[in-house]
Amino acid sequence: MTRSPDTDLDTGPGPAEAPRDTAQHARELTGHLAWLDSFTGVALGVLAAASGIYTYIGVRSLLDDSGAWTTFAALAYSLAVSVAIFVFWTYMMRLLPAMRSAASRTGLLLSMGLGSVAIIAMSSWLNAAALAGAAAVEQHLAHTVQDYQAALERTHANTIAGQSLSRDVARVRASFESLSDQEEGGNLSGLAGRGAVFRILTQKAAELAALEDQIAGQGRAVEEAFAEGNAILSRMRALTVQAGAVENRSLLFSEEAVRLSGIVARLRQLNAAPLVVRAAGDLRDSVVLPTLDAGSALGRQSQEATIASVLQALRDRADTLEAAATQVATRPEPAEVEYTPLSAADAVIRYAGNFVPSWAGAIAIDLLPGVLVFILMVTHQAIRTSRGVSALQDTMTVAELRAALEAARALGLDDRAAPVPGASDLTRPKPIPVRGAE
Questions:
Q1: pLDDT band (50, 70, 90) for residue 301
Q2: Is residue 114 part of a domain?
Q3: What ranges does the record give for the region Disordered, renumbered to this chain (predicted)?
Q4: Which terminus, N or C, of the chain has the lesser number of Cβ atoms within 10 Å?
């Protein structure tokens, strides 16, 4: 019975095909790494140089002097940062993917984390200062303007509340004037005319009238100070968005801030509430009693009784006025505002939450090679895994095979020598089936 020659050709992939696929996969990954390694160093150098440039700009923003030594110092620092970044990530790219044990890999990962923190500390925050330093200083100026505006408005409100005490003073004065008119007609002590009781009442009414005039005279000064403060605030707002170097604008801003602080202090001094508190105390405690001028003993007794009632009324009115003035005087004062100039680097740190994209870019330009390190770790692990399941003859290249043959000839071995025991069937020649043979 004849057997079809196609039977020898129709064989499926045997167990030896899988090792060949893994070996091919390992060779492909190795070739990709060789091609990528040809320009990885250049790319890493470009990233390190870019970080060094932004670091130089950030360092210059911290240094006040603009001489040659300052420039040299900034260049030296930025160059040191660039070299450190290049060397550090080169070490990580070469050594970390080659580690095979968990202990060595963990140690280098901890070293990479520590080095990343050092890079952020010496470079990334300066890069952020270079990227967003001017905007951060402008943000500081804008926040300071808001603080000054709040202080000015709160102080003006307290001062206006003090000015409103003039109505309470006028009410008390009117009550004493009404009592003096009644006393002049004899409706209080029973003695018509301008006697001792009348003089006490007119004395206190005159004191209150003087206090009322003093408070009213401060109204114009309060409005002028508030208008001047608003004008200064307008100039300060313009400086926050004005074109030009932020350092020059900060200098002008500080001058305006000093003027505005003086305006706020003047408004505090114009607050009439403390004055009214003191006047209420004088109204109650400082009373000059006149001599009783009634012609009879009965009249003098009536005057004494009326004066006692007037003094009690004085105390009651003074307590009411003092309570109203104390309520105004104890209103919360605005927090003391003082403008502190900030450098670009300090402003970026203080207002870091407002410049998250700039911080992210500044950190990414320094730590981006870390992503490449992890990519290399994964690729090298895949190569080791593929090579680990392959036999030696499956991973040999043509050059290695030729070298092996040359070594065999050098040792005097013949090509027709018996196969080495244990050799794979892949190294043995297979018979070529001939069509038509049985």
A1: low
A2: no
A3: 1-23, 419-438
A4: N
